[in-house]
Amino acid sequence: MLREGSELSLVDLMSMAKPNLESREKILAKLRGRELVNCFQCIKCTSGCTALKLLELKPHEIIKLVNLGFVDELPSSDIIWTCVTCLKCVQRCPQKASPYHVIMALRNLAVEREAKVPEGYLKAVSQILETGLAETAQKVVTRKMETVDRECLKLPKIISPKVGFQAVFMKTMEEK
Amino acid sequence: MKTAVFWGCRILTGQFAYEMSVREVLPKLGIKLVDLRESMCCGDPIKSVNDFTANYLGARILALANLTSLDNLLVPCNRCHFTISEAKNLISTSAKAGQKIKDLLKEEGLEYNLNIKIWHTIDLLHDLVGLERIKKAVAKPLKGLKVATHIGCQIIRYSDLGRVDDAENPRKLDELIGALGAETVEYVEKLDCCGSALMYSHPDSALSLTGSKLKAVQNLAVDGLVVSCPDCQLMFDVKQKDAGTTVGAKLNVPVVYYTQLLGLALGIDERKLGLHLNQSPVDQVIARISA
Lengths: 176, 291
Prior knowledge:
The complex is a heterodimer. By secondary structure, chain A is mostly helical. Helices cover 43% and strands 2% of the residues of chain A. Chain A has two domains: 10-112, Orthogonal Bundle (Fumarate Reductase Iron-sulfur Protein, Chain B, domain 2); 119-174, no CATH class. Chain B is an alpha/beta fold. Chain B has helices at residues 9-13, 16-28, 51-66, 78-93, 95-107, 121-137, 172-178, 203-219, 230-238, 240-247, 258-265, 283-290; strands at residues 2-5, 32-35, 72-74, 117-119, 146-150, 183-184, 224-227, 255-257. The longest helix of chain B is centred in the middle third of the chain and has 17 residues, at 121-137. The radius of gyration of chain B is 19 Å and the shape is globular. Chain B starts with a strand and ends with a helix. The chains are: A mainly alpha, B alpha/beta.
């Protein structure tokens, strides 16, 4: 699990970094034609970014780094895990460079490279494989402190996926 | 009218009040719900791990909906609605990815259908049921009630995908509340995010976002905050105390789902709407309405 405030900053990771155009191509392929190369650093994304103030996420910097080929440092940086997925950057980008999608592609690359990934995401994968759901059904407590579950609330039972799902799910995880 | 319904993990495993209230109010407005064959994940958390798998799971929901032979699919969770919409968009625009997904679904004996329309609770009620029909069904108008709204991020952005409401000036939730006789307020922080997606990686920052928004709502001196997403409800309602601690404020904001508020206006018993499950002080809202 990543701890807050314990990570190397992006600038630390970037010192003496060299561009890697192959890694850049990898990200571009994952973006399926999103026009990231047309970013002209208007900074609309960063000025509206939910994670800017608290976690110093600057989406325009990430776009610039990827465009220059400085891709290898990003998957090891905590910065890609600070996006709240509010999608304001996608909405407001005048060039459809879509920083959110770039960050997601970098997260996927971090998983491929076995970089540090917040545990919750990997746990979700094993949960889905096991039960079909990313979370386990809970008992909840009412305001009057009674413990209740789906059954006593007369909600229908949770139904697992049919046999065959797991094998196909594993196959999809092989796709890069 | 019948519609298929896909709930998603968050609702099925813990946000029971949303499911209960949706199951109560929609039939009273002429919408019969048909559950899918399986309880599944839409793919949302997997977007960060493997985009293809996430899109497969999203497309698989469309395929499960296809088994019902119905033309409409209700997805009450904002994040599921976004994930399934992106999957649908991918298979409609990328022949290569579309074919791969089609082949894999075939191995499970499934087939997606791109003609199925995806609805969220908000546009289903606003555009399909309609404000007039809701107004007519109201048994207890919520006169004098003044609330703030939080529509949530993922059903309004990004517009190119086709979303439920306008990205910068969403009005539908406000209008739906107006139809019940209550009033909504405009406020600067209206479009601020609840922070829930950071719970996996930066929980303190997530709670700080939740707390900041709740603090702003508290300062409006309204009767409560109305949401329409199970992730937002989890943050604003269940985690309100923790969020308050994080931002150093004593928070006391009643938070309800729109469908709970609608249910009260339709005269449905509060327990049937799961109002005993909300952790925030909703009794004061219920008391105002019953008075």
